[in-house]
Amino acid sequence: MSHVEELQLQDIYTLMNERHSVRSYDPTVKISREEMTEMLELSATAPSSSNLQPWRFLVIDDADLKQKLLPIANNQQQVIEASAVIAVLGDLRSFEQAEAIYSKSVEGGFMTEEIKQGFVERLQKTYGGLPPERLHLINTFDAGLITMQLMLVAKAKGYDTVPMGGYNAEKFAEAFELPETLKPILLLAIGKAAKPAHSTPRLPVEQVTYWNTFK
């Protein structure tokens, strides 16, 4: 391992160890839309099922809208104190982007046009034939992958985060007029911690890991 690679690994380890969920934020800190866009772009390198990238983001940084969100999110104060709340949504029609996504693979020389056409047709047939509940389950898995990357990217940029599942998804969809094809998955508060976060205990890896058998 080179010295540069070792330093990069140390940086990753530091981020992972120093990232903690923060629920108290400095309300005076603002994050520019340019910087927020950069963090989302970096996070979007996350893998997804068939590379369909079903995640969609509603970034709520308007003070009035955060107040509107507050009761929907069980009055969690980080909703109004954080610089923004990112709603991570799943697109039930993400397979319709297969043509655009895989055309870039053709442009990059990774597959031929003929292979792409067959691949896209199979994806649209397969995903298009799944019930919404199954698609939402797939999207939820993919949302977890990109959200974890987003939390680490945010930490690397000097920000703190907390993922929130404690909110009313139905009321959120209604209040923010989501299209029927977009389903809420989680909320992510992001900003600067008002006070240092503390670590939380973890079970020993030996207690949660098995090798080849559960015996």
Automatic annotation (TrEMBL):
It comes from the Bacteria. InterPro entries: Nitroreductase, Nitroreductase-like. It holds the Pfam family Nitroreductase. The keyword Oxidoreductase applies. One of its GO terms (molecular function) is oxidoreductase activity. Keywords: Oxidoreductase. The keyword Oxidoreductase applies. Residues 18-192 form the Nitroreductase domain. Belongs to the nitroreductase family. This is Nitroreductase family protein. It comes from Paenibacillus anaericanus. The lineage of its organism: Bacteria, Bacillati, Bacillota, Bacilli, Bacillales.
